[in-house]
Amino acid sequence: MGASRVIIVGGGEFSKSVLMELNSLGNKGFYLLGIVHDQASENRECSKCEFLGSLEELPGIIDKYKPERLILTLTEQRGTMPVNCLMNALLSKGIVITPGPEFLEELTGKLSIESITPSKLIFSDEFRPSALSQFVARIVSLVVAFVALAFLAPILALVAIAIKIESSGPPFFVQKRVGRNGRAFSLYKFRSMSGTSDNRSEWVCDNGDRITPLGRWLRKHRIDELPQLLNVIRGDMNIVGPRPHPESNLTMFSLVARNMNNYGDQVPYYSIRLRVRPGITGWAQVKYKYANGLDEEMEKLRYDLYYVKHYSFGMDLKIISKTISLVIFGEDGTTGDQKTIPRESNR
User: 244 Cβ partners below 8 Å, 6+ apart?
Assistant: First the structure.
């Protein structure tokens, strides 16, 4: 099956974002025919994109280039949106018409936060996972957690002993995290850092020297996360879901997230993230690097919101499959997930 023939209808900054993603991803199954807009000069600077004509010429452009898909990056305003032409393309020619934000989601696997408005959150069911899907995820998580703990118990005991032998301090790291609907709980991990009395930030870039040799290996293969199987059984977490953030960071993340929308409205994005149980692994973990700052955390938020919007058992299976690959083959173990170990934990 060949690449889908695509025309972008609209200009401005958002169309440039779509063009940049298409170019950076090598078009990813799409053949970009060009762009249609009244202000062509704004888009001629974008590489690998041909200006096809103005909005007034759109009917003739469709007949000439025969696209299979139109990507709309226009703001719907009276006298601007070519409604009749688009209706004809949809009903008579069978052309798929996709809003730009949805197309970006399809390309990147993350949510275009700039497209979310308060009214969309209020009236849309997109960010409300069904009770059935959440029930299925909960049952599957419990079964997996019980089976995994029964099978891995001897290995987990050996890891705990190895941590005690390698460095002083408890084998486990316990920290307050924020779960579903904002409820706080104690999260368990294998300790992968040595203790410190310094007053450091919570980002791993400021604590990399504290990661022990064993801890680096545990983090590389995600083994340090396995004690969270207990959190799954307790009901704090599922196997798959957004990673729970430290309770101490909740206010900061919420305030920063509210100011990410270009429309000027303060939208409570972070509360969307809390509509489902957090997970041991998640969409952001398999699609994006570990976060080492607020900008990267907010980028991961886009993936978390995409997960909530497209929440399904099939997506959970896809994430589990990708996670198994990461565990087997490993990856860079520099994670921003573990907070600086409190002084009392090193006794």
Answer: 177, 178, 179, 185, 187, 236, 237, 278
